[in-house]
């Protein structure tokens, strides 16, 4: 697995709820690349639970959207915005049973849109939730100017 660096950390976007390791109330996700996938090994916190130590569905949806965003950064080499997200909850994701694996994979891409499959797996590898996420992607020049996309090299050492 290859570590993906968060180049936004030292910018004014550095407090992202999903990916900033400096946001104490955020998810503090970190990312790796493995083949076609962008992956995050993520330890859920108890305050993010809904019913009986089950990770809240809204938080799961946020996590699925966040991994999809990083797929756009790394696999599409640009920035974008979510236009659709269809989540399905298959099995409980617990906040007290260890790390969850979050992964996303680019399914298709054209000039304007990227379609990503994202999923959260429990410590045994069972799918807890999954989503089909559509991002409107921007030409790289626009992503650099309007969305501070730093270029693909900034994500690696």
TrEMBL record:
Task: List, for all copies, the residue spans of the domain called Thioesterase.
Answer: 53-128
Q: Give the domain of life.
A: Bacteria
Give one Pfam family, short name only: 4HBT
Against InterPro entries, the record matches this protein to:
HotDog_dom_sf, PTE-AB_protein, Thioestr_dom
This one is known as PaaI family thioesterase
């Amino acid at each position: 697995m290859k570590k993906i660096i968060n180049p936004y950390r030292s910018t004014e976007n550095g407090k992202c709820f999903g990916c900033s390791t400096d946001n104490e109330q955020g998810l503090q996700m970190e990312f790796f690349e493995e083949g076609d996938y962008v992956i995050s090994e993520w330890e859920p916190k108890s305050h993010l639970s809904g019913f009986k130590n089950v990770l809240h569905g809204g938080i799961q949806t946020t996590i699925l959207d966040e991994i999809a965003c990083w797929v756009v950064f790394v696999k599409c080499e640009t920035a974008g915005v979510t236009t659709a997200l269809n989540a399905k909850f298959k099995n409980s994701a617990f906040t007290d049973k260890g790390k969850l694996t979050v992964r996303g994979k680019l399914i298709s891409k054209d000039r304007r849109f990227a379609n990503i499959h994202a999923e959260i797996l429990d410590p045994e590898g069972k799918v807890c939730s999954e989503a089909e996420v559509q991002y409107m992607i921007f030409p790289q020049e626009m992503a650099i100017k309007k969305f501070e996309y730093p270029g693909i090299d900034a994500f690696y050492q």
